[in-house]
Amino acid sequence: MDAYEQKALSELASWIKKVNKKSGKFERVSKQVQLKVNSYIPSRVHKVISESIRSMVGAVLSGSKYISKEKNVMLLSLQQKEEWVKEKVTSHRRTAVIEGVGTGAAGLLVGMVDFPLLLSIKMKLLFEISRLYGFEPNEYEERLFILHVFQMAFSSEKKKMETLRVIQEWNRGNHPEINWQDFQQEYRDYIDVVKMFQLVPGFGAAVGAYANHHLLEQLGETAINCYRIRLLSSKE
Q1: Would you place residue 211 in the very low, low, confident or very high pLDDT band (cuts 50, 70, 90)?
Q2: 226/48: higher pLDDT
Q3: Long-range Cβ pairs for the range 57-64 (8 Å, 24+)
Q4: Pick from 170, 182, 179, 178: which is nearest to 226 by CA?
Q5: Is pLDDT above 80 for 111?
Q6: What pLDDT score was predicted for residue 108?
Q7: 135-163: buried (b, 16+ CB within 10 Å) or exposed (e) per residue?
Q8: pLDDT per position as a tens digit, 214-235
Q9: 206 pLDDT band (50/70/90 cuts)?
Q10: Which of 114, 179, 219, 232 lies at a 20 to 30 A Cα distance from 99?
Q11: Which helix (H) or strand (E) holds 135?
């Protein structure tokens, strides 16, 4: 194991510790706030989110979308792969911020367009990250893994810990299917608060930019650490 891999392993251990750390009271209070916020969000917004997620999950599992061009990374070191991955995260984050500003500035009707657009940006990023780490998203198991990474990034603390166990067992052949109803509910609960403010005309532009920047950063960090688990577990 080279110096960069040792550094990556140390960062991974810190990230796993953070995921497993329970916030207790904060988590319960956050859930209460979330339930209150849900009551203020128009039903058509919930419908758009649910349908977007259902379509996205189906598209990923069927392999009908998001397949990117192959990249030859077999001879690259982990450091070289992750430099490339971080460039992709930055690029997709920039696209998401621009999109968030545009849709957030327009208010409710156009703001709802942000949900499926942002999902598409996130999925394209995950498929590219998968290839850059040397995995093949044309394979069903890899597309399933991508959905677990997504769920890992945008879920409650309890679900994050459950999904982390799945990620850690992946190399042993444990590949559970995704329950899309749970999947979409976790995602909705995770993003509803900031997205509600994004639907406010004018004010929503700033919120949209900040929210999309944060969500792409969160996804990038999660994906990097999930793939580190697969690549570095055999080197510990």
Answers
A1: confident
A2: 226
A3: 57/147, 57/178, 57/180, 57/183, 57/184, 58/180, 59/123, 60/123, 60/143, 60/146, 60/147, 61/140, 61/143, 61/144, 61/147, 61/178, 63/138, 63/140, 63/143
A4: 170
A5: no
A6: 47
A7: bebeeeebbbbbbbbbbbbbbbbebbeeb
A8: 889 999 999 999 999 999 986 6
A9: low
A10: 179
A11: none
Contact predicate 150/219, CB 8 Å: yes
Read off φ and ψ for residue 112, nearest 5 degrees.
-65, -25
- Retrieve residue 161's tokens: 């810990």
Which two structure tokens, joined as six digits, stand for 95? Answer: 């696209």
Q: SS3 for 24?
A: coil
CA dist 149 and 147 (Å) reads 5
Question: Could you tell me the two tokens for 129?
Answer: 């990250």
- Amino acid identity of 228? R
